[in-house]
Specification:
Rossmann fold; binds S-adenosylmethionine; 7-stranded mixed beta sheet; alpha/beta; 7 strands; globular; about 170 residues
C-alpha cells in the first residue's frame, strides 16, 4: 500500500505498481529526470492511477535520507522497486532496511547484469565492464550475507532480486 519507486524513466514499472496497489495506496516515485516521467504520464492518467503517485524530481539518496528524518516513516513502507544508478544500490538498500516494515519487500532490477555476474572475469565483454557491474557484484554479495533479509532471485529479463525484510 505504501511504496517507493527509485528510477522511474517513462513509468513502465511505476504504472504496474500503481495498477497493483489498492485504491488508497501511495507511491513515492523518484527520478532525477521529470521529462521522461512526463512522457508516460498521459498513459498513467488514462489508466486512472495518477492520484496514487507522488513524483519527486531528485537524486534518490537525498530523498530517502529526508524520509528517514521523520521517525514515522521508519518501518512504514510495504514495498520498494529499485531500478536506477547501480553505484548506489548498496546505499539504497541500507536506507530501505530502515524504511521498510518487517515483512516488507525490496526488489532490485538488473542483478544479473547481462549474465556477467556469473561468468569468469576474463570472459566478461568490455561493454559490460565498469563501475555498474562492480556495484551489482557488491550488492549480490552483500545481500547474500545480509541476515536482515530473505532472498529470492528471479532469472527474468536482466535478473530481479526480491528481498523480504525479516527483522
Ligand atoms: C532503467 S531506468 C528506470 C526504468 C523504469 N523503472 C521502467 O520500468 O521503465 C533508470 C532511471 O533511473 C534514473 N536515475 C539515475 N540515477 C538516479 C539517481 N541518482 N536518483 C534518481 N533517479 C536516478 C534515470 O534518470 C532513469 O530514468
Amino acid at each position: 500500500k505504501k511504496t517507493i519507486e527509485i528510477g522511474v524513466f517513462t513509468g513502465y514499472s511505476l504504472l504496474l505498481t500503481a495498477l497493483t496497489i489498492p485504491e488508497d495506496g501511495q507511491i513515492t516515485a523518484i527520478d532525477v529526470n521529470r521529462e521522461t516521467y512526463e512522457i508516460g504520464l498521459p498513459i498513467i492518467k488514462k489508466a486512472g492511477v495518477d492520484h496514487k503517485i507522488n513524483f519527486i524530481e531528485s537524486e534518490a539518496l537525498s530523498v530517502l535520507d529526508q524520509l528517514l528524518k521523520y521517525s514515522e516513516n521508519e518501518g512504514s513502507f510495504d514495498y520498494a522497486f529499485v531500478d536506477a544508478d547501480k553505484d548506489n544500490y548498496c546505499n539504497y538498500h541500507e536506507r530501505l532496511m530502515k524504511l521498510l516494515k518487517v515483512g516488507g519487500i525490496a526488489v532490485y532490477d538488473n542483478t544479473l547484469w547481462g549474465g556477467t555476474v556469473a561468468v569468469p572475469e576474463e570472459q566478461v565483454p568490455d561493454h559490460f565492464r565498469g563501475s555498474s557491474r562492480q556495484a551489482i557484484l557488491d550488492l549480490n554479495r552483500s545481500l547474500a550475507d545480509d541476515p536482515r533479509v530473505q532472498l529470492s532471485h528471479v532469472a527474468l529479463g536482466d535478473g530481479i532480486t526480491i528481498c523480504r525484510r525479516i527483522f
